[in-house]
């Protein structure tokens, strides 16, 4: 096939015309044409992202009115999504169009549409191809449809994790590759897919991401959903990610502590060993080695003690928790040891 002339920068009309002709790449001719243009298309998508990443959503749509149509069509083309880092770039472009504070029904509808596209890109279970020729192509590569799209999800998650980590460790000024608003949007997009196993590395990276912003960059809905899934044992995350969650979102820490108390009071435990096992499994004694977490848990325990008039069950829970907390403090590395007064800031120095 003859090489076509160089595509002008941000020529949306050219690429939208291509995307319409390609459809979902169900014919041999369209598949060949897609593959021929993939390097150019990926370069164009990167140019879009670099151009709009610091724009206000309304400004971006006004300046590039065809951007939504183009991205929407490309997200459903398995050849485009499967090429190199196009999947990740499509996600970041969609993040740029997401309105963090929608002001009207149009922006609300646009947000809903963007969320559906992100769910499609992230969820391998929704990516089964019903097109025979596309399925045949995937089979020729040695994959089933489910395996192929699961591989794409894992590859995309790896790319996102790498970019977030590099962004965080690069000093992250306002001109950083990933803005705080885009990280916030990404956390929202993960909401319906939190229990998807392939997403676990991305959840961990997002929870540990700070980026130097003066206020919380993650959506409270995301933090609440992750905490809920953890408490119900629907997901498994490293301790560091859970501790970060509780440090940055007080309601989640309070809910985790109350959940532990309810759990211990409502179930029949026959020995202190069983009580200790449940408490340790909650990760709260380990997390409480951080004074900020300890003070919250301590206040909730004090309230429970007062409200129950010091029943033996609550006293036992607090005693076992305290033993596990001290063990965690002793096993913690020396550089993380805090002075005792930081745990009890309102008490006399002599304590």
From TrEMBL:
> Which GO CC terms are listed, alphabetically?
Fanconi anaemia nuclear complex
- Biological processes per GO annotation: cellular response to oxidative stress; interstrand cross-link repair; nucleotide-excision repair
Residue spans making up a coiled coil are: none
Q: Cite the Pfam families for this sequence.
A: Fanconi_C
The record lists the membrane-crossing segments as: none
From which domain of life does this come? Eukaryota
Kindly give the InterPro entries that the UniProt entry links to this protein: FANCC
Give the protein name, as stated in the record.
Answer: FANCC protein
Instruction: Provide the species name.
Output: Heliornis fulica
Gene behind this chain? Fancc
